[in-house]
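User: My advisor, Dr. K., asked me to get a structural model of this assembly before our group meeting. I'm new to this, so sorry if the format is off. These are the inputs:
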Amino acid sequence: MLRDYLVDYFLTLVARPEQDQIKITIVDGFCGGGLYLNEDGKEVVGSPVVILEAIKEAKVRVMGATNRRKDIHFDVQLLCVDANKSALQHLRQVLTDRGYADQLARSEIELVEGEFANHAPALVQRARKRSPKSGRALFILDQYGYDQVPLQTLQAIFSTMKRPEVILTFYVDSLINYLSPDNWKAFERKTGVVGAITAADLDKATRGPGWRRKIQSALYEQITTKSGASFFTPFFVRPQKGHGDYWLLHLSHHWKARDVMAQTHWTHHNHFVQYAGPGLDMFSTGYATKIDDDGRPQAAFEFDDLASQSSKTALLEQIPRAIAACPDGVPFRKFIVDQINWTPATESMIEEAILDVVHDQQIEVIGDNGSVRHVRTAIQDDHVLRFRRQFSLGLLSKMTAVE
Ligand SMILES: C[S@@+](CC[C@H](N)C(=O)[O-])C[C@H]1O[C@@H](n2cnc3c(N)ncnc32)[C@H](O)[C@@H]1O
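Assistant: The format is fine. Below is the predicted structure of the whole assembly, which you can bring to the meeting.
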């Protein structure tokens, strides 16, 4: 998933054929030793190698694009941090064996020993200085747990840079299993995630039904909104074995980055679950990893054909309602940006559904001269979407009946 996301990320950055360079810093904050043996005894590469291979693949794909004439220089600095000295020693050997010795010698790849949170302020400044104009940097924060990336670190990233992205793992099931009325304050002090949990939520005698879901939704809201990121996706990964589900949070300042990540989830539907509704308001059904009473996993939305179909059905029903709520209409781009944090759908899925409701004459598209446009394939950013008045009464009464 990380590899595909990174390839798509680079391809999106160099979409213009005249572009001849991309400059970016990638921080792998919990990089590990670079190579593992899986249960079948097969070698599996760790995130630093995945990142470097994704850069190679993206270069080949960019140069293979038919409209590209210029060579492109990927000026990427990879900063790998790990608290474990022997993991870094192992990583250095793995990278050397795989042909990256020169990049290590030129400091295009740097290995940094220590805790990520301690190094983070300096790393953020380095990334900012390398790309002061574009403000681009990617932080891959694969912590093994839930308390190694304080909220203040995320805030520093999103307040210092223009276009940072963070991919953060958060072992939400382990955290909730571990929390107790005695230790939750220590979690708050360490992470800065304050106020999401109360002692009453955790006390077996007082906690109500749905306590797990309540904690998760409050934690999620705190981490995403207080990180300072403008866009986020809360997808869940349910490993076949292990300590339960974890969040794979993607945080960014740009809707397009969020859209590329959502597309990656649709591509990798066999690994991802997202416990939420399929349409625009994906949180309306809640998103706890386990239903409390019997501990059964909540029904999942699996980014497969079935999910795609139910998303389409939900979007067709919800889009007219959302646009009807704006009496003067809403520009297409604003509509997408307003909705995108709250839907598993991608921009193209939403656009396709809008075109369907335009075709059904529930919505009309207004051009910049104020006249109705007969759009069939692509809606422009500044096209205004407006609910058709003659549709209002019938549709709204139908909606009321359903509600
Ligand atoms: C889940 S593993 C990372 C795996 C790696 N991303 C990969 O794909 O191979 C977590 C790593 O974080 C390191 N670690 C644990 N706490 C840390 C901290 N506070 N700061 C930096 N590294 C830490 C561990 O030594 C371990 O190598």
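One thing worth pointing out at the meeting: The longest strand covers residues 73-82.

User: Perfect, thanks a lot.
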